[in-house]
Design goal:
Elements lengths: L3 E3 L3 H12 L4 E3 L6 E5 L3 H11 L8 E3 L6 H4 L5 H10 L4 E6 L14 E5 L4 H10 L3 E2 L14 H8 L5 E3 L11 E7 L2 E6 L5 H4 L5 E4 L28 E6 L3 H11 L4 E5 L11 E3 L4 H18 L3 E5 L7 H11 L5 E2 L1
The structure holds threonylcarbamoyladenylate and magnesium ion.
């Protein structure tokens, strides 16, 4: 298959929309990461998404909509708290898991009776959803297990020849995937995956907001998890990633200097000095900067031939928790504490 490359003009978005209507797969930009889109209602198309990614069939896809009202086409029940959150955080990087309508086949929902729904804010994503008239099921457009793509070139690297088209909308601004939540009851928000929209951001809208323990630790393969994506190793570059929790830069630099081997790199904060003799990259100082850069740096480290990467440990509060979670998952939850 030849993968077509489209620019984000109205004409080319219309061509991409036509491919979706025909049941083809189209990768497209969102504000978080690039998605690999298919008509969420078509079993054959959704099966092709799983095949193109090499994704386990029990890991459900998120359905993307362009207007808040479309939530009623996808969800069988919409509690008041979901509407409240939609009015505040949509369009944006928040995915809500709700009971699904029959038009969403079980292939899309990974066999579950629920479905994740999100209204992205990226204008190209919304134009594509509108032009196609389809609710678009889209996982991140990487091969399963690879870092999520934040540029069209990353998608091309992973998916060229496997999908009908890639729509280029530039580099994604957020850089990590959406916050995924479900509701334990009418007033409790359960965070299944942290993102730019944090526990602190959600707190004013429910009496309780809590983060699933799987965000902080490795889950044994036989344990039942609240969100299937938690089970799978994720986001990993080829290089071994080793986060180092150090009291300060001097302690980090000292540890790395003593333990460096052939192919060792460092992933540092922007404000850090160089460590003599050890090549480094930087991923920002704030949580938002680190989220924007993390997956990009993972891919650059692989291109540079890094074998072992010592990473300055991000914080764990606010949006920074999303960076911490992606990093710890890439590291298989192994880290060094000094
Ligand atoms: O930002 C994003 O969410 C991106 C862009 C493309 O929108 N999409 C994305 O999709 O990250 P994906 O498939 O890579 O991750 C979806 C996550 C998985 O961890 C999956 O297990 C969880 O959402 N999920 C989806 N539907 C669910 C459901 N019904 N119940 C529990 N978890 C669900
Ligand atoms: Mg993904």
């Amino acid at each position: 298959m030849i993968t077509e490359y489209f620019h984000d003009t109205a004409e080319e978005i219309a061509l991409a929309a036509r491919l979706l209507q025909k049941g083809e797969l189209v990768a497209f930009p969102t504000e978080t990461v690039y998605g690999l889109g298919a008509d969420a209602r078509r079993e054959d198309s959704v099966r092709a998404v799983f095949a193109a990614k090499g994704r386990p069939a029990d890991n459900p896809l998120i359905v993307h909509i362009a207007e808040i009202g479309q939530i009623y086409d996808i969800a069988a029940e919409v509690p008041e708290i979901a509407l409240r959150l939609a009015s505040v955080f949509w369009p944006g990087p928040l995915t809500m898991v709700l009971p699904k309508q029959d038009c969403i086949p079980e292939v899309t929902s990974g066999g579950l009776e629920t479905v994740g729904i999100r209204m992205p804010s990226h204008p190209v994503a919304r134009a594509l959803i509108r032009a196609s008239g389809c609710p678009i099921a889209a996982p991140s457009a990487n091969r399963s297990g690879k870092p999520s793509p934040t540029t069209a070139r990353h998608v091309m690297d992973d998916m060229n020849g496997r999908i009908a088209a890639i729509l280029d909308g530039g580099q994604c601004s957020v850089g990590v995937e959406s916050t995924v939540i479900c509701f334990d009851d009418s007033d409790t928000i359960h965070i299944l995956r942290p993102g730019l929209i944090s526990q602190e951001d959600l707190a004013p809208y429910a009496s309780r907001v809590y983060v699933d323990h799987a965000i902080y630790e490795q889950i044994a393969p036989d344990v039942k998890v609240a969100s299937p994506g938690m089970k799978y190793k994720h986001y990993a570059p080829n290089a071994k990633i080793l986060p180092v929790d150090a009291p300060d830069f001097a302690a980090f630099a000292n540890y790395v200097s003593k333990h460096a081997v052939y192919g060792t790199y460092c992933l540092l904060f922007d404000g850090d000095p160089e460590i003599p003799g050890i090549p480094s990259m930087r991923y920002g100082d704030s949580g938002a900067e680190q989220a924007h850069n993390l997956f990009l740096r993972f891919r650059e480290l692989d291109e540079a031939g890094a074998k072992l990467v010592y990473v300055r440990m991000p914080r764990q509060d606010g949006a920074d928790l999303s960076v911490y979670n992606r990093l710890m998952r890439a590291a298989g939850f192994e880290a060094v504490t000094l």
